[in-house]
Write a structure and sequence with these properties.
By secondary structure, the protein is an alpha+beta fold. It has ten helices and ten strands. A six-stranded mixed sheet has the order 1-5-6-4-2-3, with helices on one face. Helix 4 packs across helix 5. About 55% of the residues are buried.
């Protein structure tokens, strides 16, 4: 579940329809875990909407020169107080044998920082050297991970349906990318702008995982949250970018509801207007563009999406069609109107039922490094 606020929303990886399904159809322990997760998420939404908001974690040092990762990892010790107690820093990284969740979170933060800096020249979430802060072991059987505008928070899962939420690198990249999107575009977290917000996080979460594994689009699984489900769940992941609607089909969780085409767009008011559901449509478009473009997906397709995110013409209420048009304009600016890349982007959006036209080219908000 995620916040209805338009600025700095609480951005969670777990689609609320899954938690509601578990609360209705799970066994006693599963229902308790799902209900408690829903209640905690609602509390955080209220805090994010309040004038006081969520307190920033301590020790937020100023930007460093030259650019460098500055990670601080905390543990909540299965309590609900943030940020918790420090367990790792750049000077004292965590040991995998001592705490596998802390190890995965720390290195997931690092892989995300490396991706944005090495590929796009971006210095952390805000492009100004923002420290990366995370808390592991949050709450009891907490089935979620989220970005609250200042830090990452990871639950350990209930152990019956969900494993620890640090297990998937793309989940970590997904949540931190919500911070990038907020910094660059501030997409309203409702309806199509909110679904774009979720899709952009899926795109770069997947690219971070692909780059870490050295995979081409043909080699990648394009799954978001692979490894989160235990063996008790009939499914592969929370979402599939390659084939939206096929990630899981389970007696307790239900069936993956994501559409892969505008003909199947879900007009709903649940989940802030279906932000975790309708994101399947732009997800599929990106997958198709990446596969058809070849090479590594972060090199051209990812560059087009990243530069579009930074485009001054990307308003905070941008819907699918305007975003699609902007990606076409970006491809034109980067590679030319007669380029293969331009044609691939146009065809990728057509695949999901969105016809594009090129708007007037705009200037990125920040100079490209």
């Amino acid at each position: 579940m995620c916040s209805p606020s338009t600025r700095s929303p609480l951005s969670c990886i777990m689609p609320p329809h899954i938690l509601r399904a578990i609360a209705q159809r799970g066994n006693a322990a599963q229902r308790i875990a799902a209900t408690n997760t829903l209640a905690l998420d609602a509390t955080f939404r209220a805090l994010r909407a309040s004038p006081r908001g969520v307190a920033a974690p301590p020790n937020a040092a100023p930007v460093t020169v030259p650019p460098a990762k500055r990670r601080t990892l905390y543990t909540a010790g299965h309590q609900q107080e943030l940020p918790g107690d420090v367990v790792a820093t750049e000077q004292k990284p965590p040991s995998r044998t001592a705490d596998v969740a802390a190890y995965e979170a720390f290195h997931g933060l690092g892989a995300t920082w490396d991706f944005y800096f090495d590929v796009y020249g971006r210095q952390s979430i805000d492009d100004e050297g923002m420290p990366l802060i995370a808390t592991v072991h949050y709450g009891q059987d907490y089935n979620n991970a989220f970005w609250n505008g200042q830090q990452m928070v990871f639950g350990d899962g209930d152990g019956e349906l969900f494993n620890r939420f640090t297990v998937a690198l793309d989940v970590i990249g997904h949540e931190l990318t919500h911070g990038v999107t907020e910094d660059e575009a501030g997409l309203v977290y409702m309806f199509q702008p909110g679904a774009l917000n979720e899709s952009i996080s899926d795109v770069f979460g997947s690219l971070i995982k692909q780059r870490k594994a050295g995979q081409t689009p043909a080699e990648a699984d394009w799954l978001i949250g692979e490894g989160l489900f235990t063996s008790a769940v009939s499914g592969h992941a929370l979402r599939s970018m390659k084939a939206p609607g096929t990630a899981y089909d389970d007696a307790v969780l239900g069936k993956d509801p994501q559409p892969d085409h505008m003909d199947r767009y879900d007009n709903t008011y649940l989940d802030n207007g279906g932000v975790h559901i309708n994101s399947g449509i732009p997800n599929k478009a990106f997958y198709q563009a990446a596969v058809d473009m070849g090479g590594y997906a972060w090199e051209k397709a990812g560059r087009i999406w990243y530069e579009t995110l930074r485009d001054s013409a990307l308003r905070n209420n941008t819907g699918f069609k305007r975003f699609a048009n902007l990606t076409v304009a970006t491809a034109t600016r980067l590679y030319g109107p007669d380029s293969v890349e331009h044609t691939v982007i146009v065809n990728a959006w057509a695949t999901v039922g969105i016809a594009t036209t090129s708007p007037v080219l705009a200037v990125p908000r920040k100079s490209t490094r």
